[in-house]
Specification:
- The protein is of the alpha/beta class.
- The chain folds into 2 domains: 5-282, 2-Layer Sandwich (Endonuclease, Chain A); 290-490, Endonuclease, Chain A (2-Layer Sandwich).
- Helices cover 20% and strands 17% of the residues.
- It has 14 helices and 19 strands.
- The chain has helices at residues 31-34, 49-54, 58-67, 97-100, 117-123, 141-153, 197-201, 248-257, 297-305, 331-342, 353-356, 404-408, 429-435, 480-483; strands at 5-6, 9-14, 79-81, 94-95, 107-111, 132-136, 159-162, 172-173, 177-181, 185-191, 206-213, 279-282, 309-311, 319-322, 347-349, 397-401, 436-438, 455-459, 468-473.
- The strands form 4 sheets. The chain has an 8-stranded mixed beta sheet with strand order 4-3-11-10-9-5-6-7.
- The termini are close together.
- The model is unreliable at 14-54, 223-245 and 357-392 (pLDDT under 50).
């Protein structure tokens, strides 16, 4: 099966590669940020707003960008979104859309599935003054018409709307991303929320962002002419050689954005993405073979993770998949494709016999686990009967999902279920027996904020540990449409 969704632009952070302060270990993660998807812990500490401002807030980052100083040397892996109905202590380490969209923006690219443009302009009025705002969306019918009406009503006529071309009739544009261009840099934002009020106001969501400076060859032209007016067919910009400060991040970003043609994104080559703390993993509709096989979807994840060495404690670490929608999930696809890709590794360092088992061997792309080990994370309660891990694939896949009672008692009540779809016909017994784990987010105060967040990770199976190998933020749910499925003997997705 081929990919059907122009879906995630995924931010993947390998903690072992991050430039974190010496006070923290190279694989530690702020538990207060990770609580909605990883584990419950009484040790999580709130971080003050002033501390966030000094450690890479959107406003502080823009100041660093303008000053030409290193950007985001100390930042969280990702932020949760601000929810006004929660006590202040649960919003101390969060971001709102208006905090992300600020400053003297020269061009904005807003990508999402659902867009309430009237609401976006209300919470981000700075967009009304931006020379060009491109809105790329997946809405259809009346909602598509509503977006166009609002765009047409803006006095400056600076908003252009785009419905990206999809090569197949049932494809979907599901990406949730912002790109904000400034004179001296660009901000790239990956989030899990639609651009609608309820997604940013009542649901559990996540945001990753990073600001990037100009390439050295672009600095002298930073004051060049602004982008063309919104009614123009192209945007004129300086585009120096991609060999200057080029990176995999840039290549992946531009490869993905070129799917939005005829929208011109060539000006994004002006920026230097070599300091990227994350890796982008696009998914685009269609069939992918040859060199493109490992460029998109879960096969991109397999290629990325297959090059990484992790600490021995992660050799038996489960794959945690937390999402807000579940498709038809064949057991063989979950085991042989998704779990295999997300548990890939080049190897594990300093692995003890207890971590592997006496007969296990570490090999590229394999993640062995001690036979019969009862792997669990505090706060995850397996539903159904006990599972004999010895008869299952070497690394278990945990799918985190809210219960009906969670939905009933949520801030939205039963209506929250509308954004957590799962067809009852797809609820096979093996899912309950092997994969499902309960959603828990008490420590972060978001147990009643239903998850629209989509996160994937590998966590140390030791219940007393707060460490993870890597984490991923995405708009991709657990489905073949979002991640792709291998065909023709594994030669294409």
């Amino acid at each position: 099966m081929h990919l059907t969704e122009l879906d995630p632009v995924v931010a993947v952070e390998f903690l072992t590669l991050l430039d974190e302060p010496q006070a923290a270990t190279s694989t530690s993660v702020n538990t207060d940020l990770a609580e909605p998807i990883l584990k419950e812990s009484t040790k999580a500490q709130a971080v003050s707003t002033s501390a966030i401002e000094s450690k890479g807030s959107p406003a502080a980052s823009l100041k660093q960008l303008a000053a030409g100083t290193p950007i985001h040397s100390v930042v969280p892996m990702f932020y949760l979104t601000r929810i006004s109905r929660l006590p202040a202590r649960y919003n101390s380490h969060t971001l709102s859309l208006s905090q992300l969209v600020q400053g003297s923006i020269k061009r904005a690219i807003l990508c999402n599935y659902m867009v309430d443009l009237d609401w976006v302009l209300h919470v981000c009025p700075v967009l009304l003054e931006v020379p060009v705002v491109d809105v790329v969306h997946g809405d259809k019918g009346d909602r598509k018409a509503a977006i166009q009406r609002v765009a047409n009503s803006v006095p400056r006529k600076n908003i252009r709307t785009h419905s990206p071309p999809l090569p197949i009739p049932y494809g979907t544009h599901h990406t949730k991303m912002l790109i904000l261009c400034y004179d001296l840099g660009v901000r790239v934002v990956v989030c899990t929320a639609n651009f609608i009020a309820i997604d940013w106001g009542l649901k559990s969501q996540a945001v990753w962002f990073q600001d990037f400076p100009l390439k050295p060859s672009s600095i002298s032209t930073a004051t060049s002419a602004a982008p063309a007016a919104a009614g123009a067919s192209t945007v004129k910009s300086v585009a120096p050689s991609s060999a200057v400060g080029s990176s995999d991040f840039e290549a992946d970003l531009l490869d993905y954005l070129h799917r939005y043609q005829p929208m011109d994104v060539s000006e994004l080559r002006r920026y230097d993405y070599s300091s990227a703390r994350a890796v982008l993993v696009p998914s685009v509709p269609g069939y992918h073979t040859g060199i493109n096989l490992h460029r998109y979807g879960h096969m991109k994840m397999r290629a990325l993770l297959g090059k990484q060495h992790f600490a021995g404690k992660f050799a038996s670490a489960p794959v945690i998949a937390q999402c807000s929608s579940l498709g038809s999930l064949p057991e063989h696809w979950l085991d042989s494709e998704l779990a295999t890709s997300l548990s890939a590794a080049a190897g594990y360092d300093h692995v003890s016999a207890d971590q592997l088992g006496t007969s296990a061997v570490v090999s590229p792309g394999a993640s062995p686990v001690k036979a019969g080990a009862q792997l669990k994370l505090t706060g995850f309660k397996r539903k159904g009967v006990a599972v004999d891990h010895a008869s299952q694939p070497s690394v278990p896949l945990y799918i985190v999902w809210p219960t009906v009672e969670d939905v009933r008692t949520s801030l939205e009540g039963y209506s929250a279920g509308g954004s957590i779809p799962f067809n009852a016909a797809n609820n096979k017994p093996f899912l309950k027996q092997r994969f499902f784990h309960k959603w828990r987010a008490d420590v972060s105060g978001r147990q009643r904020c239903m998850p629209h967040i989509k996160t994937y990770a590998r966590a140390d199976p030791n219940p007393s540990s707060n460490e993870i190998a890597w984490a991923l933020i995405t708009s991709a749910n657990v489905s073949q449409a979002a991640w792709g499925a291998l065909q023709k003997g594994g030669s294409r997705t």
